Amino acid sequence: MFLEQFPQDGKSHGWIEVICGSMFSGKTEELIRRLKRAEFANQKLLLFKPKLDNRYAEEQVISHNGTAFEAIQLDRPDDLFQFWKKERIVAIDEVQFFDNTIIEVANTLANKGVRVICAGLDMDFSAKPFGPMPYLLSNAEYVTKVHAICVSCGVPAQFSHRISKSDKEQVLLGAKDKYEPLCRSCYNKIKHN
Ligand code: ZN
User: Of the candidates 134, 57, 51, 64, which has an alpha carbon nearest to the alpha carbon of residue 100?
Assistant: First the structure.
């Protein structure tokens, strides 16, 4: 389990944490776990998500297990600076849906001493790196990859298989109705059938 390593030299250090993995791997649960710990310690934080994600309630990030946190929905990554009042923690959920300008935003915040926590899908349904994720993973000080469980054979799963074959666009919002987590060998079997 990821444990925060706070520098003890009294300086304002910033860094980037990335939580990545497939659908149903618990990324949002892990993000919320870190935020709850920070909130309990009275650390000021902000949570953002891209505006296109309206699967559950507006203005909240709700994990699949139902825990909720207030979130500000952004059209564009740099709109974030309109809301940021020097909070030392900035969290971004579903970060893969932002364009690549999120990379500079995350680094700018970290350079200013902010702990930036990003959660997102590392791969799309066709197993390609998703949007800005490769860059964020490279720039991050800490990377946590979480896994789902393969619905076909029960071993750790890292692929988000899209159940419907007719939908080819990269962004197709949905949950259990549209996707299932598969391990490498089960994903390959389905892909080559
Ligand atoms: Zn499997």
Answer: 134
Residue type, 110: A
- What separation in Å is there between the alpha carbon of 182 and the centre of ligand 1? 5
Confidence of residue 53 (pLDDT cuts 50, 70, 90): low
**Which tokens sit at 23?**
């659908």
Helices of type H across the chain: 27-40, 101-111, 133-139, 184-191
Rounded to whole angstroms, the Cα distance separating 24 from 148 reads 5
**Distance between CA atoms of residues 37 and 39, nearest Å:** 6
One of 17, 29, 87, 94 is an active-site residue; which one? 94
Is 94 marked active-site? yes
Domain ranges within the chain, ordered by starting residue: 15-146
Fold of the domain spanning 15-146: Rossmann fold (3.40.50)
Q: If you average pLDDT over residues 36-56, what whole number do you get?
A: 85
What's the chain's Rg over C-alpha atoms? Answer: 17
Does pLDDT of 66 surpass 90?
Answer: no
Spacing, Cα 171 to ligand 1 middle (Å): 24
Model pLDDT, residue 172: 84
